[in-house]
């Protein structure tokens, strides 16, 4: 199979194709990082959930757990699959010497718009989670200030 980044004299890569290829690879990399972060956030939540006793806090814990589960096990995986299929379609276009297919451009632009929207929403959830979990971690900070070791 042809690699998009292969050095060859058989393909004329349009500059826009290379840019789209790089954006796709960046999006895949970001999505993989998000999955790792979400696993870490879930561990933080599991660790500090007992620090929260108010009903409103319990609802927020459920809210974050739902987000983490949905993003990690469905949404991000779906985007990674779509992005990899997009890369495969680019490789096929290069293999068949057909870089003029407009379908790739249309699908790419649409998918990357969705990824950008996901990135923005993820950043909002991440900030909300950090603010929330920081309240639960404050007891550990107090303990550390008193000279005890953090678990």
Outline:
This protein has 151 residues and is mainly alpha-helical. It has three helices and no strands.
Can you put this structure into words, describing what you see?
- This protein is mainly alpha-helical.
- The protein has one domain.
- 79% of the residues lie in helices and 0% in strands.
- The protein has three helices and no strands.
- Helix 1 runs antiparallel to helix 2 and helix 1 packs parallel to helix 3.
- The protein is elongated.
- It starts with 14 loop residues before the first helix and ends in a 6-residue tail after the last helix.
- The model has no long low-confidence stretch (mean pLDDT 84).
Overview features:
3 helices, 0% strand
